[in-house]
Amino acid sequence: DFLDGKCTIEKTLVRDKQTDGDLLLLSLTKNKEERSVNEDEMKGIISELNKKFDYILIDSPAGIDEGFRIATTAAEEALVVITPELASIRDADKVIGLLLAKGIRQEKVNLIINRVRPEMVQKNDMMSVDDIVDILSTKIIGVIPEDKNIIISTNR
What we know:
By secondary structure, this protein is an alpha/beta fold. The protein is built from six helices and five strands, in the order E-E-H-H-E-H-E-H-H-E-H. 35% of the residues lie in helices and 17% in strands. A three-stranded parallel beta sheet has the order 3-4-5. A two-stranded antiparallel sheet has the order 1-2.
């Protein structure tokens, strides 16, 4: 509706009731014509949000197709979330290259490594954080250990 001029950007935001802060969610679902947001529309949305917020996080779909291209069109920084598996690291290398090609500076691209299992790293059955840094030459700002309780809860 915002893109069609039927409402303001504020009307499209939904406050997250699970937080005390100003975490607001904006859904970029397809409109009535069943078309996705294009790059120019995304730039317009981000421009409007920039007037009101200090930080805007955009969750990109996995992969490097149109969804990634549109989600990153107005990005100034990037958090690349990976797992310590070769396929994920290869994909991250491609993503980082695309982000740099879009003009995002190297120091503005950071990694978060998810599902790390320290016992596997110690046995050399999983790549270490240092190995990943060596391969991707990108700063890591977070390491999240795997938690079996999360796996159990998502399978219920």
